[in-house]
Structures
1.
Amino acid sequence: MTDSPGLGPLSDRPRHHQALLTLPAQEAHVSAARHFAADLLETWSVPASERDSAVLIVDELAANAAQYGREHMTLSLVLDHGTLHIVVTDSGTTVERRRRDAAPDEHGRGTGIVQYLAQSTEIHQTRGGREVRACLRCSA
């Protein structure tokens, strides 16, 4: 994990923070990503309502990475100029469409939740896997 505090309280520039966490792409590690984000955002003085939205985004993206990633998932959090950038990468391939016989309450809500909460989202297939970005305005 890294944290860059910026120029300090006397500066008129916003503070910049960043952190990185890599975990095995397994469902058992999703809660670790969620707790990491919650604790870190509290330390960065992100207001509770914005923190709750960000933690829910992290939870959904980490759950998808754990489900579809093969080896590892990486969570990157960057707070800069009033925007929280949440990036989750995994070593998986393109997400398959939900099977028609799968129960609708068991699959498919995660991306909708992320798109609803975030100001913007992007999904990129990379050489090593997939990268999902979500940006959220923060007043911290």
2.
Amino acid sequence: MSNATPAVDGWFTTGPEPALIGTSCRSCGTISFPRETTFCKNPACAGEEFDDVELSRRGTVWSYTDAQYQPPAPYIAVGDPYVPFALAAVELPEGLVVLGQVADGYGVADLKVGSDVELVVETLYTDETGDRTVWRWKPVTAQNGAPA
């Protein structure tokens, strides 16, 4: 991917082992995603200082669905006609549930609650500056190097 840049800057890393970027509250250790900059999400904490943390690359499917109808703007359709895609809510070891599209080539038939997925970075759309990337959840299978 030449000229590839994140569609949302500062939410994830790129490279061979991409990761979501969250924050950890310096007062209580509560982990947040997306990154927190104002106040701790823990209602029992008054913390206002945070450290960036890379979240786990693997998690388990907490829930999933498919987007059969084109979302409204600011969604950018990849093609015409609209092609449905799968979404997964993934529980990370840090205790967060993070929603994201499922990797290209996978759909709801490839998912089940409790199954393992890993974070990948793929092209969301291409504009005049090049590829704009986003994180997606890829099912972990025997074909991609891990137990199914």
